[in-house]
Design a protein that fits this description.
Largest sheet: 20 strands, antiparallel
Helix content: under 10%
Order of helices and strands: HEEEEEEEHHEEEEHEEEEEEEEE
Structural class: mainly beta
Distance between the termini: 37 Å
Oligomer: single chain
Number of helices: 4
Length: 316
């Protein structure tokens, strides 16, 4: 549950424009005691160009770096994982479609499977703290030496919204075709038996502000997941509920102050009327989080679970 909260924490860090005194973040560092567990760097347009999570699942380290074009569209993404290795994707944009490519490096050690080696074969990435450092390591440079392969083509309608995506494997064979509709999304065709046997059909419903208010997932084996979301008049998510096979799994309630800053989160797991976790947030004058304090309420007494402190640096 601590890790789920960190994910929400990362998402919340991207909201940095509140009121008249808004500023653009340059760097964010999150600390668990003295250990830095999250680093995020932003460009002057507010795009996240580098992120590092160290300790999300025990000693696991995950890194990503992104580049953007003049329209703030993502054109390249590089990912590094201490267990799995390195991957890279590039996006090219055209009038009515966008294409995504990946690289299959010539050196297999760049993407070797960790089960064949000692635990954390790429744990040296723990020392990387910027996009520039990531781009300079041999494993990332090796990605460019491999074969550049088309991953998918996304077709756009007259409003530049996705309406059709074709996904390919590394040999160029069609795997799936996805159809994006106004009020829902679903995979309409599979071209691979393994994909067909493990397919998941997803449908979504939106409100008038295009917020997702309901999402249903049905797996080929019959398992179902249903998600329900509520939003405030200012389009802030105020509640999310999840059911698995029609059985309640969890619920989260989000509470904001008068400036729409998240100040409290209440979580319920397995029992819809008993609070499991409650988290309090403090923000700086620009609306960005500076402290997160979580309490566990599953026992007879409220127990402190963790405290995260954040250091925010802004562009001048």
């Amino acid at each position: 549950m601590k890790y789920i909260s960190i994910i929400i924490y990362i998402i919340h860090l991207t909201y940095f424009s509140y009121g008249q005194k808004s500023k653009i973040l340059k760097t964010v560092k999150v600390f668990d005691r003295k250990k830095t567990i999250i680093i995020k760097n932003f460009d002057q347009n507010g795009n996240c160009i580098f992120s590092k999570v160290d300790g999300l699942y025990g000693p696991v380290v995950m890194i990503s770096a992104k580049d953007y074009d003049s329209l703030n569209r993502e054109i390249r993404s590089i990912s590094a994982h201490c267990n799995i290795g390195f991957t890279m994707e590039e996006n090219s944009y055209f009038k009515n479609n966008a294409k995504t490519f990946t690289y299959y490096p010539s050196n297999i050690d760049t993407i070797r499977q960790f089960k064949k080696y000692s635990y954390h074969p790429f744990d040296f990435i723990e020392k990387i703290n910027s996009r520039e450092q990531l781009n300079e390591i041999a494993e990332v440079k090796n990605l460019f030496s491999g074969k550049r392969v088309l991953v998918n083509i996304t077709f756009l309608n007259e409003n530049n919204k996705n309406f059709l995506r074709i996904n390919f494997n590394k040999n160029g064979d069609t795997l799936t075709i996805e159809n994006f509709l106004l009020n829902n999304w679903e995979v309409i065709k599979y071209f691979n038996k393994e994909e067909e046997d493990n397919k998941t059909i997803v449908t979504r419903e939106y409100d008038n502000n295009f917020n997702i208010v309901k999402e249903c997932r049905i797996q080929s084996n019959g398992l179902t997941e249903d998600y329900y979301f509520k939003f405030s008049a200012t389009n802030k998510k105020i509640e999310s509920v999840r059911f698995s096979n029609k059985t309640f799994e969890d619920k989260t309630v989000y509470i904001y102050d008068s400036m729409d800053r998240l100040i409290r989160k209440i979580e319920y797991y397995h029992t819809p009327d008993k609070i499991t976790l409650i988290t309090y947030y403090k923000n700086d004058q620009y609306g960005n989080m500076t402290k997160e304090t979580c309490f566990d309420l599953t026992g007879h007494k409220k127990k402190l679970k963790y405290v995260y402190k954040t250091e925010n640096v802004y562009w001048k």
